Every structure is written in structure tokens, then in C-alpha cells.
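Step 1: inspect the first sequence and its C-alpha cells.
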Amino acid sequence: MIRFNRVSKRYQNGHDALDNISFSVEQGQMVFLTGHSGAGKSTLLRLISLLDRPSAGSIQVNGTELDRLSGREIPVYRRSLGVVFQEHRLLFDRSVFDNVALPLLVASYSPAEIKRRVQAALDRVSLLTMESLNPQVLSGGEQQRVGIARAIVNTPTILLADEPTGNLDPKLSEEVMGLFQQFNQFGTTVLVATHDLALVEKMGNPRLQLAQGKLVL
């Protein structure tokens, strides 16, 4: 499902964000990516999302060698991914419904299909009754749920989350992780970058630990 083979990433300033990383995440797994701030967690997720390219090594996702994808093929590839950010990245000039609908609009779904999928996604995160609201009136936890609904609205095979509970209290953090577990139980492969080691240990899922760009075995 996700395979890194001796992947390194060096930025133009000479910083080695990742150094000779190899690992596999199999289809249907839920795996935590842990490590200190600056360990390379976000860089690793950016490489999977093709927001960055590796300096060395190869990455395979869903049987596709990412280095073989052309620029025109990247948008189609990204439709197989859902991405959840720590800072939500919601548009406050649009309703909750319209925020969740964005990936479907980009993919040119019909209005009827957009409505069906958006309402199903909001229902899964318990926000269906708030679809007409502006995200600004929601709590931090509710805004994060909108971001999660947007990430799953196109039923991705892989869900990536970058510090999704970093701004939430412990109770809300557990609720958000519980949602990821539910999606994983439906067959979605989930990779969550987090620094919340207590929650990681409590949940007991497999874990990849990074330290200064290297994988700690």
C-alpha cells in the first residue's frame, strides 16, 4: 500500500529532513508516525501527497511508483488520498457543506452526487445538522471534524493526518482518534503523524518513530 525504499529528502538549504528511510504500511493498517518536532514527520506525509519529491530513493503507493507520475497525473493520484491538517485549513467565506464539497467540485461530480456524499461524510462525523453553518461559529473540535469530513468525502483508500489533535484537549483528541479507528475498520489505510505518545500507547497501533530524519527501529 505505502512503501518507502531508501528515501531521503534534502532541502535547498542543505537540511536533511529524511535520511535513507525504508518501511511499509500494508493495506488496511492504521499506523502512527511519531517523533520530535522537526523529526521529518510532515516531510514524509508531503512526499506521499506529492507536495514534495524525494532527493533519493523510491516511493510506491497503491502499486504506483510516484516518481513515474507526470504533473498531469498527480491530481488523479491525489483523489485516492484524504489529508487532515492540524490547522483545519477551512474557508470561512463558505458554509460547512461547501467546505466539505470542495474535493468533489474539483473532481467534477454531479450536484446530486455531491449532496449525497457530503451529507454522508458529515453524518459520519456527527455534523450533519450543522451543514449550513459558517465554520467560524464552530468549536475547535467541530472544525477539525469538518476537516476530517472533507478528507473522507471522496472515499479515499489512504487517509493521512498531520498532527490532527495538536490543538485539541485530551477528550477531543480521543474522539478524533476514535473517528480514524472507525474509518480504518471500514478498510481505509490510516497514517497519523502525532507527538501525543500517551494516546499512541493507549491505542496500541503499530508505530513508526523518526528521530532527526532517521527511522528508529
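Step 2: inspect the second sequence and its C-alpha cells, then contrast the two.
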Amino acid sequence: MWIICKKEWQQFFSSLTGYLAIIVFLLLNGLLLFVFPNSNVLDFGYASLNSFFTTAPFILLFLIPTITMRSIAEEYKSGTFELLKTLPLKPSQIVGGKFFGALLIVVAALVPTVIYAVSIQQLSSIGGIDVGATMGSYFGLVALGAVYTAVGICASSFTNNTVVAFIAGAFVCFLLYNGFDAISKLPVFKSGADYYIDMLGINAHYRSISRGVIDLRDMIYFVGLIVLFLFITERNLRKK
């Protein structure tokens, strides 16, 4: 499994596209946090990374499908999937290697954003950032990235077209993150069903973790989604 994981890492950084994707992710987050109005923490006046943790999930909607779109679709297209089947690996090990390889890239993209927290802490004159909430938010962002990664790999397993895999992965991730939240706000669900519909989406659980409280229900939700999409991916590989 770790052979596949290493292969994914090397393949992503073997071209300029991989570096550009991460650079654009960091640059866009930096501009939103320190330069652009309405999200600029310097104009806001408080030592907080709330604007970063609010916008990052939407930017990851594009970054992670970019990472995962070639995971399996490219194997189909280039014919190397036949070579994968000759390796002494189970489909679950191949899927696990693809998943952890892509997730390591996502974590590598998130690690440099710690500079934002350090910068705001240094700029703060009183108190500083809420360390507990910040750590919880980073934990939630990694969990969110893991779900996006599982969805992206699953989308890639359905097609040999990387563009289709990117669009499908980004679309499903958007629906999971914001779709249930939007549906729960419809007037027809105001009688009490809105809470349960909202809890079906990622956004509600991500907000919960971002408060610095690690709830077992939120963890079960994230792990459940990851297992579900990886299971679907494994079934696809077995059919192939």
C-alpha cells in the first residue's frame, strides 16, 4: 500500500502543475486573509483566523479534485491499471494507497498556513488568537480534506477522463459541504426537520469542530463518509 502512496506523492510533484496548485492555494488564502476587503483580518481588528477557516473549505473544493482527478482515471487512460492488477495488492490496498498519498499532499498544502496563525499572533497587541479554537479548526480542516480526498478518488474511479473526474469530484464535495445547509434553510423544513437535514451535511460538523470541541459524533460522521466513498471506489476497482 505504501508503494502506491509514494507513487501518488511523486507523481503529483513530478510536474510544475502540482507546485502551482499548492502555490495558488496559499496565495489566494493569503490575499483573502491579509489583503482583500471584507475578509481582511487587519481591517477586522481582531486576532482571529475565522475568515481563513470560512473560505478554505471552498478553495479546497478546487485544490483537492485537482490532486485526485488523475489518481485512478489516469491509470485507466494510460493502461497502467493493468499493471496495478498484477501487483500482489488487494483492491482495498490500492485504494488505501491512493487515498493516503493524496491526503499527504493535502496536509502538505495546509502546513504552511500555520504561518498565518503565527503572523496574527505576533501582530496582536492584546490576548492573541484562541489557540484551542484554532487547533480545533485545523483538525476540522484536515478531516474535511480527508472527506474531499475520498470523494475525489471515488469520482476518479468512475471515468478515464481527468476533467470529468475533477468536475464530478468538485460538484459532489460542494453538495456535501453546502448543499444540505442550503436545503435546511428552505421554509418548508422550518418545522424542525431543518436541524436533521443540516446535520447530514459537512458544514454543520465542521463548524462544531471549529469551536475547539472534538465531538465523537462529528468524528463518526467524517470517518463514515470516508469509509463509504472508499468502499464505493474499491467496488469499482473490483468490477474493472
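Step 3: confirm your contrast with the notes below.
The mean pLDDT is 85. Residues 2-239 form one domain.
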